[in-house]
Design brief:
There is one protein chain. With about 475 residues, the protein is α+β, with helices and mostly antiparallel strands. The protein folds into 2 domains: about 20-345 and about 410-475, no CATH class; about 350-410, Dna Ligase, domain 1 (2-Layer Sandwich), CATH 3.30.1490.270. It contains 13 helices and 22 strands. It has helices at about 25-30, 35-50, 80-105, 110, 170-180, 185-190, 200-205, 235-245, 300-305, 320-325, 330-335, 355-360, 385-400; strands spanning about 55, 65, 70-75, 145-150, 155-160, 220-225, 245-250, 255, 260-265, 265-270, 275, 310, 350, 365-370, 380, 405-410, 415-420, 420-430, 435, 440-445, 450, 465-475. A 5-stranded mixed sheet has the order 3-22-21-18-17. This is Circularly permuted ATP-grasp type 2 domain-containing protein.
């Protein structure tokens, strides 16, 4: 297999030579009989099917449950590359937390003219309930996912920030467990950093965020899920089980004696830290959507009085806004006093008149995204869109330019996937997972590699036909 023309392939260079990170893996791969690899590929599918690693697809005529496609060729990152990435990720996460604190307090970044006030006014992720309130330990984003793309040997860019409720960590863990079960000899032959202790690290990080009034004992941590019909329910149940935490729904909880408590066979028991996987609007029907049955009436009053920690804090979705993302280099510099170590992808803010004009003139070459969009929905990929799709999107863009940003169509790096005809390059991105507590920032060595399984596709989201890979960070 050779690299695609004009694209950076992470396994092979332009002459077909194996890059250093993959040398030992390729030696092993070339030693394996083809039938052995075919059998292992079938085995991987069977493993995921038995485990029930699925997700729900919405927005179609009928919601359906699908198997997460898994590719058994690992994505490999050297120790040196990971050290550089980790420094940039840590810097960005520190800036995000400082930014969120500032937004809900004095808004110094707005006063200094570094961020337009209009990005907050009318922002659907902004919560008035959080103004003037500081979460326990001053932590807003306890679990963060930073989406990265690569375009060259030393060229990594941040594609977007996930500071509200990042998902996918269960797939990272299951990918590793599957690979270790299928190829134990590979892990004795190649030194790979472990990711398997993530649930223990998550439990420790959340426990460190207990409200000061209830510190000292063994904290009770619970995962709040919308229920079995949520697309990420497998992950909610998996993490609760692996952490030894309680898995609860809103109907299991109520406010008793000024605490959020869960129903048990011995009555109600107070919760200290609530790892919520429910969107802000559904957390508390007394504060947000009154029709919600997913949350807990009175939760926000308990939170603001110091009776519980909510991870991630309500209102953190402001940092996921793609228009605010476009200001992240300025945000990092404002709060850290340093230039951003990880650059953004070049971004045009369609709310700006000149940027809008440029985007409208170049729609066929650009990727256009909704500022609050996720999962690959509501976007236009110009080079792969029909003339009608571009014309229809042009109408939407003109009607609400402030709802969109645009970016160039990047030459994303490729990694090989296993096919019946051998290895074939496909585009990938990477979501490292970061834990934040008063004890510090903890970055798991690896993350979730998502891969566009369709040849030539740039969309890696599982909801759009993408799959996942195990991500290896090599030991020194």
């Amino acid at each position: 297999m050779q690299a695609q023309g004009g694209k950076f392939d992470e396994m092979f260079d332009g002459e077909g030579n194996t890059r250093p990170a993959y040398i030992e893996y390729c030696r092993w791969h070339d030693e394996q009989p083809p039938e052995f690899l075919r059998r292992k590929n079938r085995e991987a599918d069977d493993t995921f099917r038995r485990t029930g690693i699925t997700f729900n697809v919405y927005g179609e005529d009928a919601a359906e449950e699908r198997l997460i496609p898994f590719d058994m060729v690992p994505r490999i990152i050297t120790a040196g590359e990971w050290r550089k990435l980790s420094k940039g990720i840590e810097q960005r996460v520190r800036a995000l937390n400082s930014f969120l604190y500032d937004l809900y307090h004095r808004q110094e970044i707005v006063r200094a003219g570094r961020l337009p006030e209009r990005l907050l006014r009318g922002n659907e992720a902004w919560l008035d309930n959080m103004v003037g309130f500081t979460p326990p330990g001053g932590i807003y984003t306890h679990i963060v996912g930073i989406d990265l793309v690569r375009t060259g040997p030393d060229e990594f860019f941040v594609l977007e920030d996930n500071a509200r409720t990042p998902s996918g960590v269960s797939y990272m863990l299951e990918n590793r467990e599957t690979m270790m079960g299928m190829f134990p000899e590979l892990f004795s032959r190649i030194g790979v950093e472990s990711v398997s202790n993530y649930p223990r690290r998550l439990a420790r990080s959340l426990a460190a965020c207990v409200p000061p009034a209830y510190a000292g004992g063994k904290p009770t941590v619970a995962v709040l899920t919308p229920g079995i019909y949520n697309s990420a329910y497998f992950e909610h149940a998996f993490l609760a089980d692996q952490m030894g935490a309680e898995l609860v729904e809103g109907s299991d909880l109520r406010v008793v004696d000024g605490r959020v408590q869960m129903r048990t066979t011995r009555g109600y028991k107070p919760i200290d830290v609530l790892y919520r996987r429910v969107d802000d609007d559904f957390l508390d029907p007394l504060s947000f959507n009154p029709a919600s049955v997913l949350g807990v009436p009175g939760l926000m009053d308990v939170y603001r009085s110091g009776g519980i920690t909510i991870a991630n804090a309500p209102g953190t979705g402001v940092a996921d806004d793609k228009a605010i993302y476009s200001f992240m280099p300025e945000i990092v510099e404002f709060y850290t006093g340093e230039k951003a170590l990880l650059p953004n992808v070049q971004t045009w803010r369609c709310a700006d008149k000149d940027s809008l004009a440029y985007v409208l003139d170049n729609l066929a070459e650009l990727v256009v995204k909704e500022v609050h969009g996720s999962g690959g929905y509501g976007m236009l990929i110009g080079p792969t869109s029909s003339a009608k799709e571009i014309a229809d999107f042009r109408v939407k863009l003109k009607a609400r330019p402030d709802n969109y940003i645009a970016q160039p169509t990047l030459a994303l790096s490729t990694c090989p996937i296993y096919t019946s005809k051998g290895l074939a390059p496909r585009h990938v991105d990477l979501r490292p997972f970061v834990l934040v507590s008063p004890e510090g920032i903890d970055i798991t060595p690896g993350g979730l590699t998502r891969v566009a399984l369709k040849q030539g596709s740039l969309v890696v989201n599982s909801s759009q036909g993408g799959g996942t890979k195990d991500t290896w960070v090599l030991k020194d």
